[in-house]
Each structure stands twice: as C-alpha cells, then as structure tokens.
Amino acid sequence: MEGKPIIYASDILDLDVFERLYREYGQRLYRFIWLRVGQREDAEDILATVFVRLWEFSEKYPQTPIRSVNALLYRIARNAVIDARRKRKIPLLSMEELSAQGMEFEDAAQPDPRVSSEISLVREVMRSLQSAEYEIIELRFVEGFKVADIAALYGISENSAAVRIHRAMKGLKKLMKTG
Amino acid sequence: MNEDRIQHLLSRLGQARLDQDTSGRIFGAIRRRLTVRETSPRWRACDFMPALCMLRRFSCVGIILVAIIIAAGGGTIAAAQVAMPGHPFYGLKLVSERVFEQLTPGGEARLNLYNDLVARRAQELASLKVQALIPRDGQTALLRQGVKKTAARLTQNIANLRQDVNKISASPAAKKSFPTLQTLNTRVEVLETVLNDLQDTVPQDSQAAQTVTQAQQAVEDLQVTVKTIVAPSSRAEAGAALEEAQAVLAEIRRAEDHLSSMGISSTVGITEDLRTMSAMLKDTDSFLAREQYSEAYMLAKTATRMGDKILRALGDRLINRVK
Question: ipTM more than 0.85?
Fold first, then answer.
C-alpha cells in the first residue's frame, strides 16, 4: 500500500480490501513471525491473530487515518509475537532448526555452498545482536521495509530511523569482523 | 565482507513459502474467528453497553473487594461465636446459629448441633448468673434483658431439639444416637440447675422470670422425652451385660468342678477374684433395681473382664499339671 494516498481504518472493513491486504502481506508477515516463534503451526496461528486484530482495530477506530498498512501490520505482528513469547519462552532457532521445519535459506534451484556458509554466518552473527538491532536490520534488509515505514512502525522520525539502521549495521559489521 | 554483500545476504535470509492451501486455511481461520467473535454475546453486550466492558476491566478489583468483605465477615462471625448476652455481637451469634440450623442436615448431625446450642445457652445463663452476683449501675435492666433473650432462645432450641429427638427415637438407627442422647441427658440436668439458680436472680413478676419459667418447663419436657428413649434402651443393654457376666461365672464354676475332680485346687488369688466378681454381680442387680442403668452396665462389663481373667488362670493351672 506504500505510495498510495492515506486510507482510513474503516476502508479495511470492506472484505475485498481485507482479503487483498492478506494476500499482499500474509506471505512476508508469515516469514517475519515464523523466524521469531520457530514453530510453523504457531506462526500460522499468530498470522491469523494479526489479521483478526487488524479487523478489530478497524472496527474500534474506524476514523483512524493509516499512512502505512505495512507498518501497522508489522506492529500488530510484533505485539502478537511478544504475547506468544510471554506465554512461553521461545528460543531464537538456528538455521538448521528452521531448515528442518521447511524454511528456505537460499535459492533451492541453484544451491551455492559458499553462499550458504555466508548466509549461515550472517544468521549466527545476527543472533548475537541485541533484539532492537536485530529487528531493525531484519525489517530493513530482510523484509525490505523503507526507512519511512520503519519510522512509522516505531513512531519516530525518518532521520532517527535512518540513524538506528546505520548504527545497527555498524554493529553487525563489527561482529562479522570479529566473529 | 562489505556492507553491500551483507545486505545481499540478509535479503536471502530465510524464505518461508506460504503455499496456496496453507494461505487459504489461515484466511479461513481468520474469517471463522471474526464470525465467532461477532456472534459472541459478550462482544455484542460490549458494543451496546460500554459500561459492561468497564465492569469487566475492573472485575479483578471487584473480586478482591468481595474477598476482603467475605474475610472480614467471616472473622466477625467467628468472633461472634463467643459473644455473651449484652455483647454487640450476640445478635450476630444468634443469627449465625439460625443459618447453621438451616444448613445442617437432619438426623444425628442436627441432634448434635442442638445439643451444642443447648450447651451454649447453659453457658450464657451461667454467665448471666455470675454477672448478677456483681452489683453495677444499670445492671438489673441489662440482666433482665439478657436473661429474657437467652431463656427465650433456649426454649426455642429445646423445642427444636425435642422434635429431632422424637424423630430419631422413631427411626431404626436410634441405637446409634444413644451416646448423644446420654450426653444430652447430662446437659439437661446441668441446665435445670442453672435455670433454678437464675430464677432467684430475677424478680418474680418480670418478663425475664416468665421466660425462665417457660425454659424450665421446656427442659422438664425434654428430660421426660430423653428419659423415655434412653431408659428402656439402657435397661436392655445393662440386662444383656449382666447376663453375659453371669454366663462367664457359670463357666468358671464348671471349670472349678472339673479341676477339683482332677485334684487341682484354686489358688488364693483366683478365689479372691471370684469373690469380688460375685459381689460385682450382686451390686449390678441392685443398680438395675434402682434404675441406674449406666452404673449397672459398667459394673457388669467389669465383672465379665474379671471372669475372663479367672478362666485364663484356671486354664494355666490345668496346663501346668499336665506338664
């Protein structure tokens, strides 16, 4: 929905619009959630919760202008994951553990062992980052968020968002060198 | 590894394919959950009555408050159980007793409850009697009021108790309640003494005196009721105990005859015990004649135990001779 004019929450209550949002964001949110909760079944359940909460939000505050549906959905997803983690402790899974559940980490058609090992290294180093840094890097480079979307998600200015991304990347590079 | 390379690798960090089936299944779950939620009465109630939502939000506080009130109430009721007439909590004590009466099932449990209530009244009246011995300003009016209230309550307790006693006496399980009735009999005797003493402390023409007289009448009626139930049962039990002891004595006599035919005489100890046992049986007869059934029963049982001891001693003498 990026680049589109502002929509209002009441617009989401149209079932066609709602379904279109699900088709557009469902896939990415699914990955975002799965990476955090580790279990595929939990990810599916939380993804459903995210869209139920989006509908409820729209019903409760129909006059709310939404600048970025993307940011709103990810914010709901983050909170849903936090709720799930509060209910039971979920460790951050390794690549091997996620692969075992069906997560793909490289182009399955053209597997490259060198790329695989580099991806594995990045993933392992990411795991040692602080959660805030991990998340902002993931949103920017894994999920492909624009800086404006990240700013909207965190409720900060675009400048602040850009600075945070820069610092997080600096930290990651430092760890890559030492690790 | 430069930043561009890292970014490139990050973009390939984990691909989760949401296939058509799974995607459709999840969307189906979303629609189901939305449908269920819309038809849920709780949700609709909140839509139309926002106050309900507020109530739900503060329900925890409500539960805590109710718990505090219950705890405080429970504490007050517990404290009221030892209140004597004239105490601010005495009324609460009587109310709580009525509640217990309603909650207690019939049969022996109810009989026990009334038994306890009568004991309470006896204790309260005794307390009033003690208070009457210590002169204080304005005491007479308070005492009269206390005596009136307690005696009236006692009359009511006794009336209920008599009903239960009559019911129990008519039931096949009456024998099981025999010990409870015996306790009651003792308590009623105490109560009779307390009421007689109390009658002297209140003016004869007062309402308090009238209620005490009514209570005395109720106690007398109860005594008659209890005695008519307890006495025959007790006579039967004492009679049976006496017969058992007499049978043991007859066996001892037969054993003695048998041993003497073998040339074995009784020892001094055995002869002495036998004499005591015979005396006990004679006294049991006397108690029965005077309708003192409890004493008769106990003595007959003691005589039986002594008879058993004598039989064992005679058996030992026979074994020693054979050896």
Answer: no
